[in-house]
Amino acid sequence: MTSVFDRIRDLAGKVESGSTTDLDDRARACRVAKGAVEDAKALLENVRTQLSESWHGGAGESALASLDDFKKNREDQAHDLEESAKSFEVVRDALAKAQSDARSKREDAEAMRTKLDNVWNDLSRGKGNMVFAWAQDKVIKAEALVVLIDLQRVVTTYDAVLLAEGLKLRNKTGQIWELAGSEKRNPAEIAAIILKEIPGLAALVAKNPKLDLALLRGDWDTIMRDPDVAQKIYDYFGFKYNENGDFYTTGEHSVQSYLGWHDLYDKMGKIIGADLDETNAGGDNMEFTDPKTGKVYRLELWKGSYGFGSAFGGEVGFYTRDPNSTDPSGYFNAAKGDDQIKVTQQIYDKQTGKVYFSNDGQGADGTDKRHFWNLAIRSEPGHHAEQLGQRATIEVRDTDMRDRIYNEMTRYAAAHPEEHLTVHKVSDNPPVLSYDWQK
Fold it and tell me: DUF4474 domain: from which residue to which, for each copy (predicted)?
């Protein structure tokens, strides 16, 4: 049977195993990220001032308004990061006090155990008597029980602080990262990694007069032809220019891989200048569950214009949700490992049949061309969602997965004939299907 002294020692050990250093580091990371966010806000203000001199008309005013929204977003994010840092410091201080109290209680208990051991050792050597020893045993153990109760109170007090501050942290929207999936990185970490690079990126653009003018014109093709700028954008934002196909795509490590997917993203399209068709008809999505694993899968397609009409293209995204997920908000994670799909996507003119470009899996790591997201965007105005068609082939890991995707796509197509989506099985080895989407 575990003695009261062992229980005190074990409970104190659990309290002392917490790391105030880790909490300190988290608070510091939040404040570092806050500084980077404030730097980014200042940069946005500077960029807006420059762009306001050359951007006019409805699209220009809309873009400037979006920059104002982004600046406000940075202000909100900086506030959240500061409040998060304070929460981590409150938990740190509460843990430090709990650890100090736990050490004191454990030392008291060890002294009592030593005293009790001495009583019984004296009795074994003929000192004292049995009645006295039993009396001392009861008194010391009763005192130890009081110490245990006090220690439990210490733990309960700390738990209350942890619960309260943890709730504050969990309820932080994170602003930019508020819709991230369950496997997202720590918001402070992502913000620190990415936002600290924005001033450096701006400096690269500013040192080259051609790039500075290109930024004012919104000429991203020219900007992305600079190897230093292109590499930095790819390293931290995932976007890469494919010169052969004249389109932009994204790497598997992109920021989007941490954000996962949520229906609300589609509703945010206009804010970031995207006017897209998407396979999300009235909230009906292409989703299915693997009965063997319980994992939920979602396939979504997009096509249309980007950058407030300055670019056009399409996307094919594949996402997963774990069977034990209890998140009520409907987040999906970007597909990983064997769940990733190999997509060849074409964007074409529905009236003439002209193929504008084709992405055969560019952006995927390695040579397997498997990705969670096939994106292709060309910087060219004048193309709109209703003019564009999207066709693709999708290769998956086995015929069972292929058939489940096929069945769900044909169900969706039948339920929404206005989407003009046709689907065909292509082969079993490898497992491939194809579709043509002419919404």
Answer: 232-412
**Tokens 């400096």 belong to which residue?**
203
Q: Which of 168-172, 341-345, 348-352 has the lowest mean pLDDT?
A: 168-172
Phi/psi region, residue 70 (left: phi>0; alpha: psi -120 to 50; beta: rest), is alpha
Please say whether the beta carbons of 279 and 408 come within 8 A: no
Contact 238, 362 (CB under 8 A): no
Q: CB within 8 A of 324, min separation 6: which ones? A: 294
DSSP characters for 269-292? GGGGT-EEEESEETTEEEEEE-TT
Buried b (16+ CB within 10 A) or exposed e, 87-97: bbbbbbebbee
Helix, strand, coil % in the chain, rounded to nearest 5: 55, 20, 25
pLDDT of 176-227, one tens digit each?
Answer: 333 333 344 444 445 555 555 555 556 666 666 666 666 666 666 676 666 6
Please report the DSSP string for 142-208 in residue order: HHHHHHHHHHHHHHHHHHHHHHHHHHHHHT---GGGTT--TTPPPHHHHHHHHHTTHHHHHHHHHTS
Q: Is pLDDT at 348 greater than 60 in this prediction? A: yes
Instruction: Give the pair of three-digit tokens for residue 200.
Output: 């450096």
Q: Which two tokens stand for residue 59?
A: 């699209």
Single out the residue of 251, 90, 63 nearest to residue 166, CA to CA: 90
173: tokens are 């929207």
> Residues 9, 15, 17, 20: is their CA dihedral positive or negative?
negative
Residues belonging to the chain: 439
Global pTM exceeds 0.90: no
Closest CA to 258 of 198, 312, 193: 193
Q: Using CA atoms, how far apart are residues 228 and 165, in angstroms rounded to an integer?
A: 42
Q: Say what the pLDDT of residue 185 is.
A: 43
* Contact predicate 39/104, CB 8 Å: no
Task: Evaluate whether 372 touches 257 at the Cβ level (below 8 Å).
Answer: yes
Q: Model confidence over 284-293: pLDDT tens digits?
A: 999 999 999 9
The larger pLDDT score, comparing residue 4 to residue 63, is at 4
Per-chain mean pLDDT for the chain: 79
Answer left, alpha or beta for residue 326, where phi above 0 means left and psi between -120 and 50 means alpha: alpha
HSE-CB of 68 using CA atoms within 13 angstroms: 7
Residue 13: how many CB atoms within 10 A of its CB? 11
354 CB neighbour count, 10 Å cutoff: 9
| Intra-chain end-to-end CA distance of the chain, in Å | 72
3-state secondary structure of 231: helix
